[in-house]
Automatic annotation (TrEMBL):
Predominant localisation class: membrane
Record flagged with keyword Transmembrane: yes
Any Pfam family hit: MAPEG
TM spans (from-to): 6-25, 107-126
InterPro entries: MAPEG-like_dom_sf, Membr-assoc_MAPEG
Protein name stated in the entry: MAPEG family protein
Alphabetical keyword list: Membrane, Transmembrane, Transmembrane helix
Coiled coil: none
Species annotation: Bradyrhizobium agreste
Subcellular location field: Membrane
Length: 132
């Protein structure tokens, strides 16, 4: 597997762990028979963890597809790997700023992550201009 493919797996684990951590920390109050109970997410940290989790679900398909498309279309693997690793680092920072209630920085990081995704996605179209 390539580094980029491992980063796709890492992005999956990141969005799962974001909400799993809150459920684990507050396990006595979490009712697994009602996993979407709004009462569980009443405190601010749980709300932000849920928001970060949901955003991870929203961004994951585009990232995974962009990586697979770039690899399938034989774009420079080293560049795909570097951008995928950078995306994962930005997403980790995004989650931390989300949990830390830093909305402006969070929005900046989201924009950077989206730009990285666009770069990976359009890499096949720009392949002739990229270093081998």
């Amino acid at each position: 597997m390539t580094l980029a493919e491992w980063c796709v797996f890492g992005a999956l684990l990141l969005y799962l762990s974001t909400i799993a951590a809150v459920k684990w920390i507050r396990f006595r109050r979490f009712d697994n028979s009602r996993p979407r109970d709004p009462a569980f997410y009443e405190d601010a940290l749980s709300q932000r963890a849920l928001g970060a989790h949901q955003n991870g679900i929203e961004t994951f398909p585009f990232f995974a597809f962009a990586v697979l498309l770039a690899e399938y279309r034989e774009s420079p693997q080293r560049l795909i790997d570097e951008l995928a690793a950078l995306f994962l680092i930005v997403r980790i920072a995004y989650v931390l700023t989300y949990l830390g209630n830093r909305p402006t920085l969070r929005s900046i990081l989201w924009s950077i992550g989206f730009a990285i995704n666009l770069g990976i996605f359009f890499m096949p179209a720009l392949k002739r201009f990229l270093p081998v």
